[in-house]
Design brief:
606 residues; alpha+beta; SH3 type barrels; five-stranded antiparallel beta sheet; two-stranded antiparallel sheet; 13 strands; oxidoreductase; receptor; DNA binding; EC 1.3.1.70
Length: 606
Amino acid sequence: NRRFADGEVVMGRWPGSVLYYEVQVTSYDDASHLYTVKYKDGTELALKASDIRSQSSFKNRKSQSSSSSPSRRSSSRSRSRSPGRPAKGRRRSSSQSRERKDDKKKTIQETGLVLMKPSENNTKSYNGEPESTEKNDASCITLEQKLKSDLELERMHDHYSLRPRKEEKKKEEIYSEKKIFETVKIIEKASSKTKELEFGGRIGTFALIFFMPATVFYLLLMCKQDDPSLMNFPPPLPALESLWETRVFGVYLLWFFLQALFYLLPIGKVVEGLPLSSGKKLQYRINGFHAFVLTAAVLGALSYFQFELHYLYDHFMQFAVSAAAFSMGLSIYLYIRSLKAPEEELAPSGNSGHFIYDFFTGHELNPRIGSFDLKYFCELRPGLIGWVVINLAMLLAEMKIHNLSMPSLAMVLVNSFQLLYVVDALWNEEAILTTMDITHDGFGFMLAFGDLVWVPFVYSLQAFYLVGHPTPISWPVAAAITLLNCFGYFIFRSANSQKNKFRRNPADPSLAYLKFIPTATGKGLLVTGWWGFVRHPNYLGDIIMALAWSLPCGFNHILPYFYVIYFICLLVHREARDEHHCKQKYGLAWERYCQRVPYRIFPYIY
């Protein structure tokens, strides 16, 4: 059905007008049935077949329009110059300008259509060669029924750009897509902001930045007193210069980077964590237990070369200050680097937009240097293994100070119970990947100080207390305390194992006896087993073990039981936090679960 061949010179209608100009056909699209034509100034447009006419049809009308007055032809010729060509010709006089203004006020006259008479050198003009003004003027004749006013033509020229339609349409599509993408990013950024602030908001987190270190130093100073009663407040403060020693800080740095070296060793399996909000899964090397064994070998070598480990006890306060200073420096680094992190890598709980709050809770979810995951490393290695090393140093210090050939039974129980807890955590290292610390909380001051200072120096409080306040206990009492610890550990380990197995593979045959409530997220809520007994059975096991760790210290002072009180408060806070998070995440399914399992931590109590 093609009417015009490539290279043929025809008359093309200017889009949106009734004006026809000489054009050259360059191509034809069979799918859209559009002709691509080229004007004399080089402009290319896509026209329909109905907008193109042969030159012969205009030549027949030329004789019919020749009877029109020359003045009218010259007037129309001056007003209908092609918008596709640059303006040429003489400068108008002031009288002509006045006549033009008067013509605008007149009614639309019946005139002829402007026809571009084909010149003898059409091919040259389409190749960009100049054409004389005289030929251009001679090629214009009037042949239009109703000519629009110049104002309408100017508006039309502004509306229709001289750029090709395809190019304009493509640019409009790209611009539209960019606007949609930017709008979606703005909405996602606004929705990812932390709306509900914990820990008392900005004021509470600001206070905790000072309160947490003060609490650690207060507990350590109290344990050094002969009478560590709470009534003896405040304890005598040491001189500030005695709290810092560069050598101690160097030893702490050596310890930290030694554990980092063990973490980077290519031993142990590599597993994937839970999917992030972007759907990405990070990889983690599971070699915490290997690092523990290598640390034990290093300590054995130091002992062989007669390095006295009770050096830790003698400089315990200085080590705590060094760890606190290091954790503060690490927290500042973490916050600065988080400012350049992409939006999808920020922590859901630490993206409030408030400096203090985000600094405390952690702005970035999984800060990494290459494949080195800072949060995952600090969660288990320096602090948790350091806890065991400090307990061992306290045991050796007790033997040296009290001239004992063997450590006391109470010290053995504390070391054994807490060693079991640490070894279990390192042996089941993969389970930590499903905890809120990894999947939800950012890495900021709260976790940095907690992992590097609070865990090793507060969790070892019972062993530190027993060095200066020995407590004799009988074997039957020791057996009862051991049974209590084993019972708490059994609840803690079996409950966590059920949860971790179910999260990773709900179709595991070993979990076929468990029942669950399906949720809209695709996950299930266990309503049988330990998780059908109370909502947080792992917290119940934690509290029972914490009590067993404190009982060997006797009942002379409440200070050794600070850990139990703290642990209860911490777990109640975490439980309330988990309740709120799960209610938002699971909706009606969580309400059904709460009806099936009414007790949170303590059965028949809370």
